[in-house]
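1st attempt posting a full record on here, be nice pls
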Amino acid sequence: MSSSNNKWELAVSVPIKNQYFRYQNRFSAKILSISSTSITLSGATSGSPLQTDSDTSISHASEVMAANDRITLKAADGTVSGTTIASVNSSGLDIVTNGDMDARGFAAADTIVGYGDVVPAGWYFTNFDTTGHGITISRSTGAFDNFSLVSAISTGVTRDLYLKQSIDTNYYIANLWYRVGFKYKCIKPSGEGDFLYAGIENNITNHKYLVRGVLQKATTWASSTNSLRIGTAQVTSFGIFFEQYHDFLKLIVPTAETDIYYDEVYLEHVYNPVSSKTIYGNSVDDSDEDDSIGYYEIASCADEGSISWKEIEQDSEVELINKGMEWYDPTGYGERNTKYEVSAKFTNVTTDIWDKLIALKRIQKNGYKLNLHPYLDELPSVLTGKMYIEGVDYTYWDSGYVSFTFKFREF
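the predicted structure (as tokens):
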């Protein structure tokens, strides 16, 4: 175990798409006009909006596309031809291609589709340095599986990158305490600042930061978490973001290549939207110390030797014509295709613990998933799914104790 006190934590999960950065962004649109090297895409004003996996209204192609992304053009007569993006303008819906697409007979109203190796599915760029962002999806360096997001910062280069995901505003509760977290590595020269902060927001001017200016190397995966409360400003957007920055008072640039890796992003709370109370029985405007952390720590360790888990394979692999294997995401959220079921026994725990678990179960019955943080090196840092309580023994209920088997299954 890697937890300092070996106690598990539970919370209500806020859905985040592609939280493990496993999947590329996909985009498609109608062509508004085309020349030999430049394509202008139809925007929302022309009735044919740019379609992407990002849950936002895209106004600039540079929010979801980048140089070297692959694109395919489809003409009305069925002609198909592919190319790559040479560059993307920082405003508007113009892209520059490698290859003379105009000479191949494509025209306005034809379709363009593409796959990005830079912008992860469900996320988008905004407020970034147009000299380049250095982001890629790594397929060999994940915290738990092989996938993560990596940002390479070249020697002497500053970045001003804003990578965001919009979240359904139904999950935003003013003044509620949330916990946000992720895993990261920072491979860099000794003593350099690392351009990193992250957090949640309810609009661009009302945000809270998770990490700012981690100044140490992190050559192995580290966890960063914080409990945050955002205010009552009118909700224009609600999202989670990562930002690389330079300190405007003391400009920091790396003296050697710096790579920052991100993985396993989560956002959670302990609020019941039906009862308008937290699991501690408080409203969000009257929260005490317990529910100001955004999660619940089970205040007892599982029985020694009782913890077990098993793998659950999702049906997400297909055999290719060359006999290779490729998997797809049946959930649409970029989730792992291997899920886990964890089980443990708790003997003679207090009825207060029982009450908190039952309160979380009520929220679960209302259609919400839970997060479990098991702090086991053999499992991911956060599991999202359903909790089951079985084999309940009320023998010592009158003395304030209860025993049961706890199960948690990822979905």
